[in-house]
């Protein structure tokens, strides 16, 4: 076949760089957005941190000052803050774009009083007054300092403490620890074993265990000698822990030779033990939630406000922008492109918070019963309903609800929590899956502890109330609520 060269005309849709940035900023979480803004402040000379500026040269809020589309390199003019004014179903939107946010709502769980700035006269660090829970290693190191030990024993004890994981277990063997010791004479296994026993006695029983059975045995040995069924519990942990995990109570009773009541009491004693004693101490957590919006109840209305802590404190540097305009620079120059990127970032940030607030207002308006009565009043809701009401695409609503959180009087919830699946009822109506889970939780809380309700019984009780769900659906909802099955809930 001969090769041909021909021209064809066709039309296609392509996202402009500004629109691509707007879409990317919308789907970021609040923490990721702050990181993105910080990177822009570090790399773009036309952006400056508004929170570090003095009051004498403070410009209007950045999100408002970015509303300009001039292409001649002039400084963008300031505009009034934009607010979304949906007040349907008692939902009121406050203006989030202000440098100072004050609340005078009585009984507001999120109002902790005015924040006073530190004068800095004594050059002290305010974070030094923050109360923190010591970590496992810090607690053990502090207790170790109370003992008078020689240098070698102290080094071995510190070596064992540093080798503990967050659960409080020693996962490394003693031979591996001996290779890590920086001592003149390598320690023997007996010396490390003595150091391990000493560390196990420093604080909470179970710390420094090398296995689950050893952890539980250390906690049992720390109990008083007259603890009922302690000998049977020790026998189960030492030799029959796997049978207990498989709930082979008949085999356990046959091997131990005890009564049924004694076996159940010993199992109840084992269930009181902590399999991860290290979790009782503080640990550094990197995964924390910063709410994007705050919902407050003022009389019979719910007020939706963008969290002022996540609002960007950035603005265009007026001096640099004026110098660029006086130099007759063009937008095609590198500095002109950076100035345009700064304007795009601020406008897209404003649009991001505008969209998030509008979506939050729509959610609160449709799920007002949830804020009044709890999970059982949560209605079926889908993203398409929000998209139709706000006149946006469903993919935009999906980005606006992903990794976004809402602080309410009932706690902090992800936006997607307010979009439960729809279930049918016998009367032809609908209810949400969240309401069914709340109803199951109420049934389980009200059950007899000696005769707990099985999944089949729970499904039958829901059917009697007009909610048709299968037994496997009840099992799935129970597992989502982290509720054990009826056999494990039964108390003897």
Automatic annotation (TrEMBL):
RNA polymerase sigma factor 54 DNA-binding domain location: 336-491
Source species, domain of life: Bacteria
GO terms for MF: DNA binding; DNA-binding transcription activator activity; nucleotidyltransferase activity; sigma factor activity
Any Gene Ontology biological process: DNA-templated transcription initiation
Alphabetical list of PROSITE patterns matching this protein: SIGMA54_2 (PS00718), SIGMA54_3 (PS50044)
Start-end of Basic and acidic residues biased regions: 109-120
Protein name: RNA polymerase sigma-54 factor
Organism per entry: Mycetohabitans endofungorum
